[in-house]
């Protein structure tokens, strides 16, 4: 027994460790059927689960119902991904006596599951980034036993979701210990520190994410830790775009800021727009009746109230939409959106009070002088973000307008500091699709080479292994000449090395 674990946690980790070889060895088709069974079961229990989620989180029935559907789609996407096998990146270099550097042995490389993984679930997505959310789907698809640390904001929903998933996986014949749920921050930390745990995943705040990442890195044997943390998702809007469709931009902006009470990691926190445009007025005109929305829990509500007060008190800040927050007798906060405006000079002078993320329905309009170097604003204020957005006019889309070089430089700068660059859209609403990238440089994530949405997410929970001169009988299916699973294989034929680089040789 590991001394740092209670008997209950020891049993959980021991089951996961014992299940690892058997689960990794399951046929891709069997694992896919099990994951799809979980997706089907979640949808079958949707009504009951949504009712629990509404009570615990304050999120709407429409939002939560759609999130169950999204969660099921994620699971089904990963089922197809693991059967396709492209994520294994199977590479075969046959033995080559004519190799350019001497005789080449037969070398074959693929990816194997890392082993048991702990996933710390999120508060703001009680389905899509929680017990059976995107990280969990990727972990199970990779063939890794999964331990989920439930979020304290929705414990009853976590238990109910876990019960549905456990039953589906058991019926599908998956090994005992394939999936388990634990509660409590201390329990999560203890499991993360256990030598049998081979990776960690997290969605939440910068402070907690950094703490867990440091724990994972400071273990005697450090392990990968994939955390999605904070993001302010800057938006840049050209003057011509405002002239062309100010009302449309204002409406889209308000919808994005107020959706789910602004408690989304992709909420547009800052909008940079040339001074003197009609956007601030268009935003005020588009306000209408903005209903108040309950924040997820009292702690988040108090933090938002403090952050909102700090921003409104900063010199040079003007409230376009004052918004507000009230607290009920249970301590829950009910907020309406707040939108403020500030000049670039005042923004720079008070950056310490303004640049930090406000987790809730608040956004800042920064009005920039005509000669502002937009590309330089990103590294000036931000290390990294999940998204960056450019709203441009129809003419500017051709790349032939006078400001085209400036816009190309801005897009290049965004691509260096975000994981997803959007054009004429809004960052809330992350499409669950193979090419999606949901990640970015610190502090958006702890590892900017990874994504938590899209089929590339599975690679986080696998590690590469090469086999040299291995008999066919000892090779994984992915590397066998017969290729029984029919997965993509990249083969470098013998003799090929003699012509490497030849096409680039100068004729002179």
From TrEMBL:
Annotated region (Disordered), positions in chain: 477-508
Keywords: Oxidoreductase
Tree of life domain: Bacteria
One Pfam family hit: Aldedh
Keyword Ubl conjugation set for record: no
GO molecular function, one term: oxidoreductase activity, acting on the aldehyde or oxo group of donors, NAD or NADP as acceptor
InterPro entries attached to this UniProt entry: Ald_DH/histidinol_DH, Ald_DH_N, Aldehyde_DH_dom, Aldehyde_DH_Superfamily, ALDH_KGSADH
Domain annotation Aldehyde dehydrogenase: ranges: 8-376
Name of the protein in question: NADP-dependent aldehyde dehydrogenase
């Amino acid at each position: 027994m590991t001394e740092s674990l209670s008997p209950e946690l020891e049993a959980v980790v021991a089951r996961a460790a014992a299940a690892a070889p058997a689960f990794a060895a399951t046929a891709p088709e069997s694992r896919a059927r099990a994951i799809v069974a979980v997706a089907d079961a979640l949808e079958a229990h949707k009504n009951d689960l949504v009712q629990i989620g509404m009570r615990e989180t304050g999120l709407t029935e429409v939002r939560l119902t759609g999130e169950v559907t999204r969660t099921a789609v994620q699971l089904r996407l990963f089922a197809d991904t693991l059967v396709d096998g492209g994520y294994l990146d199977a590479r075969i270099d046959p033995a080559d006596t004519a190799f350019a550097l001497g005789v080449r042995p037969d070398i074959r490389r693929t990816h194997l599951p890392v082993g048991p993984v702990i996933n710390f679930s999120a508060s703001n997505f009680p389905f899509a980034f929680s017990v059976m959310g995107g990280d969990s789907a990727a972990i199970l698809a990779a063939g890794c036993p999964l331990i989920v640390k439930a979020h304290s904001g929705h414990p009853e929903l976590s238990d109910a979701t876990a019960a549905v998933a456990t039953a589906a996986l058991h019926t599908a014949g998956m090994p005992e210990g394939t999936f388990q749920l634990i509660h409590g921050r201390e329990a999560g930390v203890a499991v993360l520190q256990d030598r049998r745990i081979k990776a960690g995943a997290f969605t939440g705040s910068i402070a907690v994410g950094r703490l867990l990442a440091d724990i994972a890195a400071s273990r005697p044997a450090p392990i990968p830790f994939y955390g999605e943390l904070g993001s302010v998702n800057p938006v840049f809007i050209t003057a011509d775009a405002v002239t062309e469709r100010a009302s449309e931009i204002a409406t889209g902006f308000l919808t994005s800021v107020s959706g789910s009470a602004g408690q989304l990691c992709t909420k547009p926190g800052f909008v940079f727009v040339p001074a003197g445009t009609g956007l601030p007025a268009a935003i005020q005109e588009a306000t209408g009746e903005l209903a108040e929305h309950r924040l997820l829990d009292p702690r988040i509500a108090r933090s938002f109230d403090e952050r909102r007060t700090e921003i409104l008190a900063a010199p040079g800040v003007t409230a376009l939409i004052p918004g507000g927050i009230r607290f009920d007798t249970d301590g829950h906060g009910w907020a309406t959106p707040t939108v403020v405006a500030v000049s670039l000079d005042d923004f720079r002078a008070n950056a310490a009070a303004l640049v930090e993320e406000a987790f809730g329905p608040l956004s800042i309009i920064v009005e920039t002088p005509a000669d502002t170097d937009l590309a330089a604003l990103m590294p000036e204020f931000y290390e990294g973000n999940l998204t960056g957005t450019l709203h441009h006019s129809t003419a500017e889309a051709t790349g032939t307008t006078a400001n085209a070089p400036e816009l190309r430089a801005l897009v290049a700068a965004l691509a260096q500091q975000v994981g997803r660059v959007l054009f004429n859209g809004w960052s809330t609403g992350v499409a669950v699709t193979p090419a999606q990238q949901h990640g970015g440089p610190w502090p958006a994530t702890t590892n900017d080479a990874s994504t938590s949405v899209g089929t590339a997410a599975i690679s986080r929970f696998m590690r590469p292994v090469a086999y040299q001169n291995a008999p066919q009988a000892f090779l994984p299916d992915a590397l066998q000449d017969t290729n029984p699973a029919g997965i993509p294989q990249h083969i470098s034929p013998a003799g090929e090395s003699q012509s490497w680089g030849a096409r680039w040789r100068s004729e002179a």
